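Entry 14. Ran structure prediction on the chain below.
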Amino acid sequence: MLASRLRGVVSSRLVRRESNPEELTLEAIEDRRQLEHVVPLFVAFLLPYITYRGVLVLGGLGLIYALYVSPRWIQVTTRPEERNKISTAKLSYALASLSVLLFFHNRIYIGAGALAILAVGDALSNFVGRRVGGPRFPYNRRKTLAGAVAFWLGGTISAWTVILWNRPADAGDSAMVLLFYAALVAGACAFFETLPAVVDDNITIVWLAALLFWLLFSLEPFSLKPALIGWMTPFVNKMRLKESGCIRQG
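Output, structure tokens:
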């Protein structure tokens, strides 16, 4: 009887310790916050099955979560200065994501790709940058090379996946072309994320990604293979001339 009571006391203390945000380190709060940052990615997989109104409903739920639920009830992902207040970072995340999805609703794969880069790329940049560290950029000592690479890789894979999921099957772009698009946009956003921020990067990153995807997809019909051949032809010709020159000299 006594042993069971002791076990109950110990387990209840452990639960309180884990759930009490006051006893969590800032590092642990940031880790949980980045997991929370990734969670909205599931919306990208629902987009083929919901209407414009459905996007509005999900966006409204995101705003309620950012404005009321998270700062009051989900404090394990809330920074100390945000508790019982409006989290401007979470609010900007919800508003920026919703605005991109609504604006590109007729080409929803663009909004989905942009959301993926923000959700996964930005979260991995924060997590890896803090946990791995390493060389920092001279123009912004808060950002690391490891974080930027993690942003690029995570953003590329996640954006490619959701674009494949949401892009119409008869659109004509091959999976490799879409991977090239995703890598290009994620790389640009990864570099932009290393710059000193003037505006909340939840807004700038998702909109930069959306505009770059829009630009790339507006080049339709576009074949990557002819373009690459055109870019590589001068280089190949120079190499052939050098080789022929070496053969003659020999």
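The two ends are 95 Å apart (CA to CA). Will compare against last week's run tomorrow.
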